[in-house]
Amino acid sequence: MLDAIFVTLQVILAVIAVYQFAFSLFGLVRKKRKEHAAPEKSFAILVAAHNEEQVVGALMENLKQLDYPKELYDVFVICDNCTDKTADIVRTHGMNACERTNPNLRGKGYAIEWMLKELWAMPRQYDAIVMFDADNLAHTNFLSEMNNDLCTGARVIQGYIDTKNPEDSWITAAYGVSYWYINRLWQLSRHNLNMANFLGGTGMCFETNLLKEMGWGATSLVEDLEFTMRCTQCNVYPRFNYDAKVYDEKPLTFKASSRQRLRWMQGHFTVARRYFFPLLWQSIKHRSLIKFDMALYGLNVYIVLLTFLMTVAMWIDIAFFGGPNIENIYVQLPAWTGVIAIGLNVATFVLAMILEKVTFKKVYLYLLLFPVYAISWYPITVYAFFTQNNKQWSHTQHTRVVRLEEVQSKQG
Predict the structure, then answer these.
(1) 114/219 Cα distance (integer angstroms)
(2) 98 in helix, strand or coil?
(3) N or C: where does the chain have the smaller number of CB atoms within 10 Å of the terminal CB?
(4) Any idea what DSSP says for residue 137?
(5) What are the DSSP calls for 328-349, one per residue?
(6) How many other C-beta atoms are found inside a 10 Å radius of the C-beta of residue 128?
(7) Mean pLDDT on 266-278
(8) How confident is the model at residue 197 (pLDDT cuts 50, 70, 90)?
(9) What do you get for the CA distance between the two ends of the chain, in Å?
(10) H-helix or E-strand containing 401?
(11) Closest alpha carbon to 355 in 26, 22, 19
């Protein structure tokens, strides 16, 4: 019985891996650029900030330089439980500092929900809401690209999340590699197939009427994933805009990275429990590959957990009990199939960097340490599983002040 369960799970995981790899192939080629629309839509740019005095000034300068009519957008910085000079710096730049104090409901999701209520009560109403983090930098064409998509009927749009500081450490390089892979071989592939894309927490755009209809309601530790699932349930499929880039600061140290990824995985478990089965049922009922794909994406955290536990079980069986005693599919396959599978997995990350024309020399050197980053997801996920009921939001400190011109010059 145990052997049957073990083999069945291995087959399911192998099928999912092949499924994901097949989808990634559709990101190899970019479709032709779309037509550009004249500036028409108005935007409220929301910036969630908690004690971000070191980086928020650079973002304010950046947002003043967007290549979009100034009368068509306003910036609102949510100074959420701030105890530093974030609000003062924002006002110095002539932007709106909206101060919120609620020590009981902490976190980005709650801050956004509060800010949206404030926006709906204002005399001026906007066509769309754009969300950035305080450590971000936006490409000057960001709002123009959002305008293009909104004018063609998009209601939820995710921009291209790039890395602001990929050469700062081996950890920031690992984040960069991961995001280049996600943008090219996950997001773009689904965009090319007219599938739903997932939101990434920043560089997001929402049609105002949609937010008013649905409400925000995403207050988990991963509010972006939660809202993605809610949209998909309502047949609103987020679109990916490859040309709208936002540069995000990544943690410098392994400790800070682990803390951030633990929060992500804790929130991911919550969202998976809440949305996987309803979305799976909808996908079957409506014969919807889009909903099935998003349900599977929500299940990823359990896939990582199960893969790790089964691998550890096989190692223990061999090391301590003279195994293999547990039946598994790998002993039935030639050794070269495993080598090819691992090789293809590694190659996809390098291929993504080549396709994205990454020129950072240090990042290529740091690839030697990328496996450490990748493997570290497993213990983080296991720990997240046992602590998933911890709803306490933890702040990631941002200190890296970089200007857009510097980022773009390094990219060659």
Answers:
(1) 11
(2) strand
(3) N
(4) E
(5) -GGGGS-HHHHHHHHHHHHHHH
(6) 26
(7) 95
(8) very high
(9) 58
(10) none
(11) 26
d(C-alpha 255, C-alpha 4), whole Å: 39
Mean pLDDT throughout 177-184?
96
The sign of the dihedral angle between the CA atoms of 407, 365, 382, 394 is: negative
pLDDT given at position 402: 61
Q: What is the pLDDT of residue 331?
A: 66
Q: Given phi > 0 = left and psi -120 to 50 = alpha, else beta, which region is 201?
A: left
Interior/surface letters 56-93, b for 16+ CB within 10 angstroms, e for the rest: bbbbbebbeebebeeebbbbbbbbbbbeebbbebbeeb
Predicted confidence band of residue 392 (pLDDT cuts 50, 70, 90): low
Round to whole Å and give the CA distance between 17 and 10.
10
pLDDT value of residue 398: 56
Strands 96-100 and 73-80: parallel
Q: Which two tokens stand for residue 191?
A: 């965009």
Tokens in use for 280? 């799976």
DSSP designation for 167? T
- Give the residue among 6, 16, 2 at the shortest CA–CA distance from 332: 6
Name the pTM for this structure: 0.91
Helix and strand counts by DSSP (H, E) for the chain: 16, 8
Distance CA 54, CA 73 (A): 24
**How many CB atoms are closer than 10 A to CB 353?**
20
Query: Average pLDDT, stretch 24-49?
Result: 91
Contact assessment for residue 157 and residue 150, using Cβ atoms and an 8 Å cutoff: yes
The answer to whether residues 304 and 377 touch, using CB atoms and an 8 Å cutoff, is yes
Residues 6+ apart with CB under 8 A from 103: 81
Cα(71)–Cα(73) distance, integer angstroms: 6
